[in-house]
Amino acid sequence: MNPGNAKHEKKRLENPPAKFKLRIQRRQNEGAEVYWETFELPYRRNLNVISALMEIRKDPVTADGKTTTPPVWDMSCLEQVCGICTMVIDGKVRQSCSALIDDLLIDSGSDTVTLQPMSKFPNVRDLKVDRSRMFDHLKQVNAWIELDGSYNLGPGPQLSNDTAQERYAYSRCMTCGCCLEACPQYHEDNYIGPQAIAQARLMNMHPVGKMEMEDRLNGLLGEDGITNCGNAQNCIQVCPMSIPLTRAIYDTNRDITINALFGWLKK
Amino acid sequence: MAKALKIAIVGGGLAGLAAAMKIAEAGHEVDLISVVPVKRSHSVCAQGGINGAVNTKGEGDSPAKHLDDTVYGGDFLANQPPVKRMTDMAPEIIYLFDRMGVPFSRTREGLLDFRRFGGTLHHRTAFAGASTGQQLLYALDEQVRRWEVAGKVNKYEGWEMLSLVLDDHQVCRGLVAMELKSLDLKTFKADAVIMATGGPGLIFGKSTNSMTCTGSAVSACYQQGARYANGEFIQVHPTSIPGEDKLRLMSESARGEGGRVWVPRTDGDTRRPQDIPESERWYFLEEKYPAYGNLVTRDIATREIFQVCLEGHGVAGENQVYLDLTHIPAETLTERLGAILEIYEMFVGDDPRYVPMRIFPGVHYSMGGLWVDFEQRTNIPGLFAAGECDYSIHGANRLGANSLVSCVYGGFVAAPSAIEYATNVERENTETNGIYDDELKRQQEINDSIIKNEGAENQYKLHEEMGKWMTDNVTVVRYNDRLKATDEKLLELQERFKKISINDSNLWATQAVPHARQLWNMLQLARVITLGALNRNESRGAHYKPEFPDRNDEDWLRTTIAEYSEEAPVYSYESVDVSLVEPRKRDYSGGKARAVQVPQPGSELKPEGREAIWVKEGEKIIVGESIKD
Fold first, then answer.
1. Into how many domains does chain B fold?
2. Cys-Cys crosslink for A86: which of A176, B105, B108, B459, Cβ 3.0 to 4.6 Å?
3. For A79, which of B148, B157, B343 is closest by C-beta distance?
4. Alpha carbon distance A128, B509 (integer Å)
């Protein structure tokens, strides 16, 4: 039996306020001015940011009594596995579904939670951003295994469970964009970033994927390639899935060097 | 090769992507329409694994046993030939995902590892940690991206289907969709359309489903003449984590790995669970079902938990029971269940490796869906369906880890079926001039009227009210008087819907207009579910009526079929093809009643009515006057 004690139980806000505030950065559309609105909501212990936003859209009235439009944000799975609801909460990029109001108030010691859209992607409206370029990055690095066909050819290669678990860690990337938001090198899509590098690494680690490694590495050699990494290591701090992103960058750099040194031998 | 066909697929989860890959591989073109980027589809939420009788544990497992477990678990309501085809295909499907690079957990020999799941006594479930759905979806997403780069797949992400385009013979010729950012409408011409839009969990307000699972597009098909089958069969998952915004799933794999369900023997025991000794815990599932224990089927586990709480034995007198993993080494739990334990810890705060989880049943899955024949064809020629949005595999109750395999199977069957249809269809003088523009105009008018409406009702409050009524009255235990009252409530909500105002003066990227359209469609489908339940006076699988506690094969071994009419859904019933495994009483208290009847090849039957819809002459499928009656 695993002995449970207080450290395995949730820390709760000790003197919860009757009400708390949600301060939201808003914008009508991509070209429009940014403005702020504050909403006041009754405190409930199990609220997360999403349920607070849902509460507001049922009755979009600001704290000073002004009727406004319902804030727009993206959400889907609400289990921190689809990545869509990512935003900047009290200055930190994360998923809004797993951001519990209780924890946020404990951390900030205030009665206000501040919501902003991610800043490194086109801002569609309010808290909604367009991250389609992240999917394009996956095209650039051929982030797939080349199959001869999807017809039945029996099982894949035998692998150790350790290799499978190592790959699994990379394969949990939900394309949320936290790593790009936090990366000091990433602006205006000048750099392909840790997410795509890690996915290239995931494919290169597979015995079949490895056969196409060179194509993938080539996708990382351009102007927006892997050399843009400044080793700030912010990505690994903010990754909600704890993906070893810096390790992926290190290993991929090594593969590139080896490929450059010995690649001609293959020709 | 003959001319490349254009096939539209609605939905980019496992079923939609499986179909897209197959169609692109066959050299044809796909328009893939999805409300979210396909990599964020609800399939990511599937946790525990994917079933296939690969039999690597020396247990003598076989596809025939998988078939038997599936139809027995489904209380014999599923047509058996497609189930057999699926269970036969399942090992190949798992191997294919293995080749695509899915990081499945493996044995010491480096082979695929399998775990146990509900409703079977075999290790039949392949898994990648506890986020198998995410991993399978990503593998297909990668393959489809490869076809996108090759120019075979055009993705329309952030688009929602509003309606089908039907020609004057009621044949599907494409669809109308709306870009969610701009609210612009566009017609998609297609030689065939495949629906792969998942389930309708949001009809119940809070469920384990993603916020995209409204069933809206399927409801639109139903309102245009597609048959909806077995709508009343809604799976309520025994173990979910109650939340303010949704019910988060706690995977069956927690029990597959040895998790035990219990409540304190003394009602209202206020001690911490760790401090309650073994002798003072009531492991009610293990007591009542010694052979299957905590791994009885979902419908049964759900009712037992529900009942225990109803009788006041829930933890702290509330609607919750313990799901306990703390007897399993913490490292083992981290490796095999890490992803789901993180979810619990993230949202509840306690660490389930050390503190038993508190869980309660939550709406999870729809066994019902669009009626399809054995080739995934709906009754509308040119319209196909696959995955949770079709009704075909799970009967009255779905077994855990059968959904992922059924999604892929459905996509793999729908794709060649759509290609065959589109290749061979003869369109005899069918007029298509104007049909696209007319449908587009009709949909634009609906949007305009929603935008113009200025009433006092708030659509999100209406949604909440619908969800509460549906959850209270149309889930675990059903009574006819309450079902009737629920239908009246739904009619009232439909009236009140006409008085909503969208409350958003900015139409750019507004969520109010799409939600209003989804809500209307949900209200339609809610009636199909509720009245289907009212009509079915028996108990079978997930459908349980205390007034009719037994399964009644004589009257009700039938598929419910609902067809749209303006007043109310019109119901008819179709016999079930039980040609492979003879129906027997479902009873999990001992071992499973033994009767694995090995299916004979070629003994599959065609469903009634199929020929009347799909008129085949030789190799040609003729779509014309003959189908009109």
1. 3
2. A176
3. B343
4. 9
- List beta partners, residue B112: B106
Q: Say yes or no: B349 and B373 in one domain.
A: no
d(CA B278, CA B356): 13
Which residues on B lie below 8 Å from A72 (Cβ)? 509-511
| SS3 call for A245 | helix
Q: Which of B116, B248, B255, B298 is catalytic?
A: B298
A59, A52, A66, A135: which is closest to A96 by C-alpha? A52
Give me the residues paired with residue B572 across strands: B561
Among the three residues B517, B535, B553, which one is the final residue of a domain in this structure?
Answer: B535
Give the C-alpha separation, B326 to B283, whole Å. 15
CATH assignment of the domain containing B615 = 3.50.50.60
CA dist., res. B163 & res. B185, Å (int)? 11
**B215 lies in the same domain as B248:** no
- CA–CA gap between residue B6 and residue B152 (Å, rounded): 10
Tell me: do B228 and B122 sit in the same domain: yes
B566 lies in some domain:
no
B558 carries an active-site annotation: no
Query: What is d(CA B130, CA A165) in angstroms, rounded to the nearest whole number?
Result: 12
Q: Read off φ and ψ for residue B128, nearest 5 degrees.
A: -120, 100
Domains of chain A by range and CATH?
A: 16-129 (3.10.20.30), 132-146+158-266 (1.10.1060.10)
Q: What is the pLDDT of residues B175-207, one digit of tens each?
A: 999 999 999 999 999 999 999 999 999 999 999
Q: How many CB atoms neighbour CB B134 within 10 A?
A: 25
pLDDT digit string, tens, across residues B347-405: 988 999 999 999 999 999 999 999 999 999 999 999 999 999 999 999 999 999 999 99
* 3-class DSSP state of B543: strand
Classify residue B573: in a domain, yes or no: no
Interchain CB distance below 8 Å, A81 and B108: no
Q: Is residue B187 part of a domain?
A: yes
Task: Give the one of B105, B113, B509 whose C-beta lies nearest to A124's C-beta.
Answer: B509
Domain boundary among B361, B388, B420: B361
CB B94 within 8 A of CB B402: no
**B574 domain residue, yes or no:** no
Tell me the C-alpha distance between B246 and B207, whole Å.
Answer: 6
User: The domain spanning residue B453 has which CATH number?
Assistant: 1.20.58.100
Considering only CB atoms, B103 lies closest to which of A57, A155, A171, namely A171
A interface test, pick of B346, B351, B468 with most A CB neighbours within 10 Å: B346
Q: A230 vs chain B: nearest CA distance in angstroms?
A: 28
- Rounded to a whole number of angstroms, the distance from the CA of B495 to the nearest CA of chain A is 19
Mapping DSSP onto H, E and C, the string for B1-59 reads CCCCCEEEEECCCHHHHHHHHHHHHCCCEEEEEECCCHHHCHHHHCCCCEECCCCCCCC
CA B337 – CA B335 distance, rounded (Å): 6
Residues B203, B54 share a domain? yes
Whether the CB-CB separation of B245 and A101 falls below 8 Å is answered with no
Question: Is the reported ipTM for this assembly greater than 0.90?
Answer: yes
Q: Which domain holds residue B466?
A: 434-535
